[in-house]
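Reviewers asked in the last cycle whether our approach scales beyond single polypeptides. To address this, we selected a multi-component target totalling 807 residues and predicted its structure end to end. The input consisted of the following lines:
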Amino acid sequence: MVKKRLLLAEDDELLSSLLKFRLKKSGYDVDLVVNGKEVKEYLNANNLPDIIVSDIMMPYMSGIELIDYVRNQLNSKLPIIIISSAGNEENVLSAFEMGANDFLSKPVSPSELLIRVARELNKV
Amino acid sequence: MINTNNIYLNIAPNVGVDLLWWLTSLFAVIGIVYILTTFYTKSSLMLGIKRKKIKKRELGPIVSEFLFFDENTATLEDKNTYISLKIQIRQLLKNKRDRKVLAEVLVELSQDLSGETLRSLHSLYKNLGLEKDALIKLKSWKWYTISQGILELTQMKVTDSYNQITKFVNDRRGVIHKQSVIAIVSLKDEGINYFLDTTQHKISEWQQLKLLEILQNKKDFNPPRFKNWLFSKNTDTVLFALRLLKYYDQNDGNEAIIQLIRHKNSLIRLEAIQCVGEFFLVEARETLKNVFWVSNNDCKLLIIEVIETLGFKEDVAFLKLIEDSKQVFAVKNKAYAAINGLMPENHLKLDGLEEISSDYLDSLINTKELKEKEASFLEEKISEEKQNNNTIEEVENIKTVKEPEDKKEENINLEFTIEDIEEDTVKEIAPIDDEKHIEFIKFLDSKNEEFSSEIYDELYFKQDKDKKLELLEKIEDTGTSYEISLLENIIKKETNEQLKEKAEFILNRISKNQEDIIEEVDPKIIFLPEQTVFKNLYENCDTEAKLILLEEISMLGDRKELNFVIEELKSSEHIIRQKAAKVKLILEKRIENESIEEVEAIIENDTLVLPKLEDVEFNINMDLDSTTTDKAVEPVLECDENKLMPLEYCFLMEELEIKPQKPFSLFNIDFELSDEFYTDQYN
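The resulting structure, written as structure tokens, was:
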């Protein structure tokens, strides 16, 4: 069975490594990037992943800018799940307006993330 | 000329060059040492951070492995990896620095994780024995180390550390006692009790909010009875307890709250007053009133607001007292608003209202009474008629009370009864639900004139001269034939000559107009649809209203409305067409009955005794769906040739130009020549 490719964009190394570990364990092929610049490079250099999980606050490029880039520059409808810290509702709304498919608020439950990822991939 | 150089040399102190060189060298060395130290410190710090970062990067996957290891689902390879990692981590734990980094990793992760993973993280922290380091930190003399230790233990939910942390609740160092309060409230449910019992420090607004947030996030939290702290020595505790009491809706501390209204601390007083409003403590009204006069403006405003909330009209007097007393505008305004809230009618000025004389009211009441009498009389009359099984001429008698006696006698020969009309004509042609209503309307039409004049008689003769004159002027402007009898009565009974003359003048005028109208109205005149009063109303109606209007036309309409109704047979709406067809037949029937000549002709020609309608077999088939013109509404009557048709249906057939089928017989040859014959002859 072909593994689904997942791009995880998270600047917190500890959290990202933990989430990567959990996602990998669940059968996803996870690529990790830590800032917006790396996200752009990754998307331009590689084929688009099946799903993107991105933190809303990242260096160089925010999660909202990432959605804008994917939707308008790459003209892709690939599912994007946003991770935002609690009390950041305005950014979440902006993310949805730009075309985010789902969102998770910090503190994150890895089990919940898995369910959301699976659900978004099943929709496609 | 004076040589200044010599002067300065003489004054300047004698400093050895060697000393200068020595000092220069010293400062240079200090500078270099400072630069080197700074560089070294910075480098070592950077190195430490870098090492920590590397260590964290190393520890991240190990921690993940421990967190997500599931013995049941793990493969053999996973189990081997797990065991090797366990050995590796044991080695790490021997090193104090690595232990510190590992603790930091776990604390950091605990901030970003939730759910089952967080619980696993807490377990891992305890299993690795890292809480021992945190507890050691609590013994440090450095405030930031203690604070770090408390934070770590709180974040990792080490409930065993609760007792050690409680010691810091009243610590003189602000950061520590605040940190410890948060820790004990977070760690155990009874932490809030301990804190409220023992705290001696000020509890800031921020701290109160933070503690409330912690309590809100506690699962299955059973809040203590906060009334127990309403008489605490610490005013902040009292204030916080009042707020918690309000938040958790604990209304068992009413007496204490009422007492706290008198508290010298204005904040407590304000909070207690708010609680009075929140818990609707009506028994606190008197205390509030007493406290009002010694309170500040904020308290006064709140007291008024609460009194208004409690909503006792008896308190209006107190509020009026405030309004009349020397208070600031805001307080007076609030009192005014509260009075309006409690008794809106209190401030309603009646000066500008129009006065209505009792005479006018009496007349209105009399009119109403008369109308009620009229309705009950008519209903009684109808029931009597039904009981007596009256003949149609008797009904006619009731309808036209002013008809001459001889006409009544002429109608006697008609032997079909009112029931026949109801059942066989009105019911079939116009299926109006309430039979009584149909009869009532019939009588109402005829009785209108009579009763109107009775009413006006009563109204008129009760008025004074000016009013009578005014009434006569109104009759002059708008009067119709309905007012003739009134005017005649006025002429007969009125004692005032001026009014009598006026009445005579109006009567002549109306009579003349009436004659003109009678002259103008030719029964054969075709009224255009526009001539009916219903036309304008009808055009602006929806379907439902149109149906109601058509119903009204069926009750009140005459020949003026007939063409209008016929016009409606072309309506695009089926239901309207259907209704219009029914109304048309009713109107035609009414017009027919009104024609005295026709009635006379009927009487003259019809000497036969008509059978009851039940005996006649007939069907009326109306194909209304296909109706586009009035001609399309053609009832096809199938009569039994051996029986005579009822008079009503003869009229109906005549009206609709339907010729009954004649049975073919050799002896009944029709010698009438056709139109074609005559045309050919003349041509």
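Chain A has a mean pLDDT of 89. We regard this as preliminary and will revisit it once experimental data from Aim 1 are available.
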